User: Fold these one by one.
Assistant:
Number 1:
Amino acid sequence: MKKVIVSLLLGLGVLANANAQGDVEAGKTKAATCAACHGATGHSAIDTYPNLAGQHADYIVKQLKAFKDGSTRNDPVMSPMAAPLSEQDMQDLGAFFASQPSTPSDAPAASEGGAPAAPAPAAIVGDAAAGKYLYENGDESRSIGACIGCHGKEGMSDVLIYPNLDKQHPEYIEKQLKQFKEGARDNNYAMSQFAAPLTEQEIADLGAYFKDPAAVAKAAPAKAKAVVTVVGDVELGKAKSATCVACHGTDGNALVAMYPKLAGQHEGYLLKQLQQFKSGARDNAIMAPMVAALSDDDMKNLAAFYASQTTSKVAKPDAVNEAGRKLYFGGDSVRGITACAACHSPVGDGMAAAKFPSLANQHPDYIKAQLEQFRSKTRANDANAMMQNIAIKLTDKDIADLTAFIQSL
Ligand code: HEC
Ligand code: HEC
Ligand code: HEC
Ligand code: HEC
């Protein structure tokens, strides 16, 4: 499965790379004005100033544009630096810094370096092993995606608009996480969402992890992954499912494309849907009478039964829909569309504890219908209008592309 993710992400990287066209030599000349803060080769001596050496060119260009237009980043130091840069300047600077080795042979030891002021004593001491665990697993119960899914193993990301975090100053990483959390740095993709629930301790833990991810990898045992508890009774649920068979199939693999498959869907998500069909929060004329007579226990048991079944595969399309793939993994920063992968996972299996549904192998007709319903607000039972806010920005073509792409997950 890892292999699949990596190859998909690599594919996206290739796509994103297509518009990089900077000139390394020209960039080197233009970088003279940046040297005072970022170092001549992109290794900054000041902890809260980012290293740029070896960073993805596309990411550097994207940040320079953001500082210039003020849309998502405002920094009293960088904004005036970016203001006079032309598109070509940005491309050249991106190409130059990306071409520099992230670990220079003459790198100053971490303890040296010309930091101008003595660093403030850290109020909270980070735990590197806890940081590594959070980085690799996220926290489903608080809807925090696993950082590794986008930023890669030990912070080396394959997707060119996702920054590398390895070789970055931990202090800078912590500062950025705080900015995302507080909204000072805005990012519609995922970071604002994931940083919001982070505690100060967790931010310190993540910073501690990035002091030396490779060392932590050797030393630290991972904590056991939290087990999502099954609340309902599978056998009682199976007995209750007789009235559902006509539409959802005997094992929850609906044969008719307009009826959703329930097999293998997350239990917590299924239970939420049943409760909301009953309360009317999810307003549906077909499902409402089906759940009207169900007790709380019936719903728990039905959810447990369907979650325990195995999802049947959908027919995979011959070719992967490229536009759909780009939106699914990268979202669209200009239109403010969050990447679907951030919540539904890179392989489409959602997040059980967060009640983010699995999309992989669901009937395409049903996926399309739900995106349209969220867009028109006919379906409005998503917490914080998470899906409605995304769907409202999708065109008919986006929905067709996404539906086609999800079919290949
Ligand atoms: C006076 C100091 C200073 C100078 C000169 C300067 N920068 Fe910066 N730069 C900063 C600081 C501080 C930040 C971090 C801002 C923040 O915390 O959001 C930054 C951030 C950046 C980032 C974002 C990196 C990331 O990982 O997100 C890029 C890209 C960048 N600078 C490029 C440049 C380029 C190119 C130049 C020269 C044209 C330049 N900077 C000149 C201080 C400077
Ligand atoms: C769905 C993909 C995704 C996930 C998951 C994700 N990030 Fe990010 N992250 C991004 C993107 C995209 C950016 C660049 C935002 C921008 O362009 O301003 C970013 C930026 C950052 C930055 C700023 C780096 C810099 O050079 O300025 C930090 C630090 C960071 N992420 C840490 C994390 C941590 C810690 C987690 C896990 C809790 C995480 N990210 C999860 C996509 C993701
Ligand atoms: C007459 C056909 C029919 C019957 C019988 C039926 N359903 Fe449904 N079910 C549907 C349709 C249609 C939808 C999609 C509604 C929509 O478009 O929002 C649905 C949606 C659902 C969903 C939401 C799935 C998701 O991915 O969000 C659940 C859960 C569900 N049904 C459970 C049940 C259970 C349990 C029973 C039996 C007690 C049942 N259904 C009986 C037609 C039916
Ligand atoms: C911020 C998190 C988040 C993001 C990003 C997100 N979703 Fe969702 N999605 C959800 C949640 C939560 C639900 C379930 C809402 C509910 O509780 O009924 C959902 C439901 C869905 C459903 C209905 C599934 C079903 O079984 O009924 C589809 C289809 C879907 N999302 C597709 C997408 C696509 C395509 C994208 C990207 C364009 C996307 N989502 C981005 C959180 C997200």
Number 2:
Amino acid sequence: MGIVTVRDDNAYWQPALETQSRADWRRLQVDLLKAHLHHAYTGSPYYRTTFDAHGVHPDDLRTLDDLRRFPFLNKATIRERQLAVPPFGDLVAVPERDIVYISASSGSTGVPTASPFTAGDFDEWIDYEARQFWSSGLRPTDRYAHALNFSLFVGGPCVLGAQKLGALSIHAGTLPSERLLAVLQQFQVTALWTTPSYAWHLGETAVRAGIDPKRDLAVRRLFVAGEPGGSIPETRARIEALWGADIYDYYGLSDIFGSCAGMCAEKDGLHWAEDHILVEVLDPETGEPVPEGERGEMVLTTLRKRARPLIRFRTGDVVSVTTEPCRCGRTSLRLKGVHGRLDDMLIIKGVNLFPGDVEAVVRQEPALTGEYRLVVDRVEHLDRLTVEVEHIHGFNGDPADLRDHLRRHLKAATGVGADVSLLPPDTLPRAVHKAKRIEDRRSHVWS
Ligand SMILES: [Zn+2]
């Protein structure tokens, strides 16, 4: 793609692409997918061997449904192949001399996995980031601060999308909160990217330091990613009120792009980068598609990333999507919710529960700080869920009434009966970047 010149008042970055019909999206995806499967098969020993073993060939793909004949892979596959053929694994489909950038996952659950990019992959990614920022209302007149980690983290280079768009781009990184607040104040930053937990923490830190984010800071757009909170209305509303800013939720994946989807000004779901990534939403048990709008595991296939194609990558994220046209005029598939990780899905007395389901209830209650933790244990062979919450400073209601009210509200909203433990403010650990919301003590009961 060449240089794109877009006027500030244009609604779209690439109007023809962004507003094309669903049939045109499917045609585009089939064309890209055919070429991409051939590239994977001819370039990557892993894909050649695995496709052959499953009796499938890139020529077998005529429609998007035909993709279901191809095998899945997941994070463990990437890790295994990387250990088998170091350092990048044999999913890589280009010579190493063509690789110019890698990100690596944090490695909190094992050996970090590297995500390689060719120069072309990297440029296309940044083009997409610019388009996505534009759809969220970022303009060349904005002053944008990127407060994410740059160390091997795929979220870091997203700042280049803002820069490509023409915004003044401040590569802030993970500064201490006081320092970041000083930067926001000094440069009167208008847009900021961080995690939802950190946006909250930073806003509260500002207030404690005598800075009113609404009055003393100029931040009017907050981009967030990395946790479900950015799409939970109650969480959004509280962070937006604290900052006097609009929140735009984004979704990214260390193994593909820093962002793969993001909100437009309508803030009604996250528009997906469908010219780069194909989305399937499947029943995790059967591997069959769920009806549109229902919750299922998101499975992703890259369509043009040449360094390391990912074909049918099981993300472990439970999502719901829609292809209904958005009021903004864009026609891409939208994520309606990232409900949580399959790993974080608690099964309490047979009912599926995500931390986000509880968050929606907790953050509606003005007498609570909004912090919470789920503690699960097993008492006499029965699961017991305790939701720990904090009352606000100066709370003078009846604690028993509040606990009772929450118990009923939680039961009605989630179908799960829970105990509520009401704690004083500032008792629960504050997340600096990613909140740990679940303490499952059940395994210890049986060990
Ligand atoms: Zn939209």
